[in-house]
Amino acid sequence: MDSLELPCFDTMNEFVKITGLSSKLLYCLSNNTSHYYKQKDIPKKRGGIRKIYIPSYTLHVVQHWILTNILNKISPSNQAMAFRQGGYFGNKMNALYHAHTLYGLSIDLKDFFPSIDSKKVYSVFSRIGYNPFAATILTNLCTFEGKLPQGSACSPAISNIVCIGLDKRLIGLCEKKGIRFTRYADDMYFSCDDKALLLKKISVIKKIINSEGFIINNKKVHFSYAFKQKKDYRC
Questions:
Q1: CA distance 30 to 23
Q2: Are 135 and 122 in contact (CB under 8 A)?
Q3: Residue 45 backbone phi and psi in degrees, to 5
Q4: Rounded (5°) CA angle 212-217-221
Q5: Which of 13, 19, 110, 151 has the fewest CB atoms lying closer than 10 Å?
Q6: What DSSP designation does 166 have?
Q7: What is the pTM of this model?
C-alpha cells in the first residue's frame, strides 16, 4: 500500500476523514447499497436484455473516489485491453495485435460482471493490504446484491484486477507456444499461424477459464479459419 501510495483507513472515522464525506452518508451507502441503484434494461443486439445498474449521485461520487485513489493505481495484466487509457490499449489496438495472424479463436465469458461476486471483490482489497473492516466497507460500496454491477464506475477496473490471475495463466500458456492472447473485458482472443496448435489448445484454455470461476458462453466460441478474413465456425 505504501509503494502505491494508497489511502489507508482502519475505522469509519478515518474513512470519513480521508474522503471528506459525512459518517452518516458513508454508513448508509455501505450498509444499504441496494437502495442507491436504479435498474435499466438495455436490449442486446442479438436478443436478450442487458441489466445496467446506475448508482445514485452520492454513491457514484464515493465509487469515483475509490476508482481514482485506489483502483486506478493497480496495473492489470499487459494483455487486458479494455477499460484502460493509453495508446497501447483499446479496441483498435486489440484488433491490430491479431491482424497479421492466420488463425484465431475468440471466447466470450458469460455474465462477466455478475460472475464476479463479493468474495472476489473482497479478495482484491484484502490482498492490497486493507484490514477486514476496510475491505468489507470498500466491497459493499462496489457491489450490488453480492455481485459486481454493470454500471458502477468501479466495476471495469475491479474486473481487470480480478482477472490478473486468469490473464497470467493464459499468457504463460500462450507465450510458450507462440500464441497471441488478449482479453477485452469478457472477450478473449487467441491467434497464431498454426491451425493444429490452436485447435489443440482450446480444451486447455477452457479448463483454465473454468478453474478461475468464469463461465464460457459456448454460443460465442468461434475459431477463425483465416482470422483477418473473418471466416469462422463454432467450436
A1: 11
A2: yes
A3: -60, -35
A4: 105
A5: 13
A6: H
A7: 0.90
- Listing DSSP states for 79-144 in one string gives TB-SS--STT-SHHHHHHHHTT-SEEEEEEBTTTTTTSBHHHHHHHHHHHT--HHHHHHHHHHH-B
Structure-block grid coordinates of residue 100: 497479421
C-alpha cell at 204: 486447455
Alpha carbons 234 and 222: distance in angstroms, whole number: 4
Per-residue pLDDT reduced to its tens digit, 147-165: 999 999 999 999 999 999 9
Handedness of CA 174, 178, 179, 185 (dihedral sign): positive
The grid coordinates listed for 52 are 445496467
Q: What are phi and psi of 81, to 5 degrees?
A: -100, -15
Q: What pLDDT is attached to residue 234?
A: 55
The residue whose grid cell reads 464525506 is 21
Half-sphere exposure of 95 (CA within 13 A, CB side): 5
